Amino acid sequence: MAKNKIITVKGTAITIIKENNEDFISITDMLKAKDGDFFIADWLRNRNTVEFLGIWESVYNPGFNYGEFAIIKSQAGLNSYRISVKEWVEKTNAIGLKATTGRYGGTYAHKDIAFEFGMWISAEFKVYLIKEFQRLKDDENDRLKLEWNFQRTLAKVNYHIHTDAIKENLIPKELDKTQIGFVYANEADLLNVALFGITAKQWRDANPLAEGNIRDEATIEQLVVLSNLESINAVLIHQGKPQSERLLQLNIIAITQMKSLLNNRQIKNLK
Fold first, then answer.
1. Which of 31, 39, 127, 129 has the greatest count of CB atoms below 10 A from its CB?
2. How much is the pTM?
């Protein structure tokens, strides 16, 4: 689950989570904007609500239990009828509503259903909910565009350096037999050694006051090469190459790529 987002609608803070690449909005938070003592169960017992949920699930949920839904639909609207979100999900195998626990616990609804719930709060609230949600999506899209343009720029110019002294420090050293023969606990450290010449722990031991890790302190140039090494290492693993052989090849590739990037004078125009 991705990091939660918060939007404010008519003074009410509403949490949005992402699950399976879909946005779910907290209708528990939304309920705070409704005057009087109302509960999600009051909305869920409404016949129009049940019919809408059934249609939504039939469109998006191939595992929807139509038999149980038919029973619930026949009882919806009766004074004696009550059903919780948990019961609705368990009986119908619904995916549009979900009850969560923990810090951000509560009832969450797929954005389509949350917008419908917003109408139950008030027509005005629904309009502002959609407006704020769209603003959030627009902001996310703008950030993605910036990241994409940045990555494209890096890919085109393939890297650069300011001084010959820095170039010397950035170009990886050839590994000795001890480094090549050592068995590394994880692939991340294998790549660290191939590019930086040391493991993450060795870097931390040498930089006890640093707040980040070895990769946090890497230059953009090194991160580009590191990304390339990750892809190449995956291919070598698939080919069944032993760790020592992979390390040697990755180190040679790291040296070659860094030399190539650092000698690319076209990149200087970006700085």
1. 129
2. 0.53
Outline where the chain has alpha helix (H).
27-31, 40-44, 47-60, 66-75, 85-92, 111-121, 123-157, 164-170, 177-181, 187-196, 200-206, 220-238, 243-262
The set of residues, in sequence order, having a beta carbon less than 8 Å from that of 228 and lying 6+ positions away, is 253, 257
Contact 261, 159 (CB under 8 A): yes
C-alpha pair distances (Å), 26 with each of 8, 43, 110, 114, 194: 12, 14, 9, 8, 46
Please say whether the beta carbons of 172 and 198 come within 8 A.
no
Please give the order of strands across the beta sheet that includes 97-100: 5-9, 12-19, 22-26, 106-110, 97-100
Alpha carbon separation from 29 to 33, 104, 112, 230, 249 (Å, rounded): 8, 10, 16, 42, 54
Which pair of tokens denotes residue 13?
Answer: 């803070």
Token representation of residue 132: 């704020």
Least confident piece of the model among 143-147, 164-168, 207-211, 244-248: 164-168
For 78-100, write each residue's pLDDT tens digit: 888 888 999 999 999 999 999 88
